[in-house]
Amino acid sequence: MKQSKVLQINNQYIQTELQKRRRNADENRQKTRFMGIILVLAIFLFVLPTYNLVESYDTLKEREEQLVQLEDRYKELSRQEKIESSLVTKLKDEEYAAKYIRAKLQYSKEGEFIYNIPGLLPK
């Protein structure tokens, strides 16, 4: 086996320098660990509000879609209400009411024949 020709000096100065290096390495490790923990906490603190913001945005979009659907439904119901109210005012006229009943319910006077023609029924 070859013997190394490098001679290591082991005196007090070398020992103190090695201890300083170990302390510095330990301090650096602790600083790095502390900065890693701080970084993880910072990321966590930014992720939670972002998640809540995204959920709020999704809820807002769903509510906007629901509002559009409800507005469409309101327009449809308003249109139907106008049609029904116009029918009510027309039915107050006895002559129209008689025509309507005869056409819709197929009532007839004695000796009368009824022929239904689609599209000619009163509205």
Automatic annotation (TrEMBL):
Keywords on record: Coiled coil, Membrane, Transmembrane, Transmembrane helix
GO process terms (BP): cell division
InterPro entries: DivIC, FtsL/DivIC
Transmembrane helix as UniProt keyword: yes
Transmembrane segments: 34-54
Coiled coil: 53-80
Statement: the UniProt record of this protein carries the keyword Lipoprotein: no
UniProt name for this protein: Septum formation initiator
Upper lineage: Bacteria, Bacillati, Bacillota, Bacilli, Lactobacillales
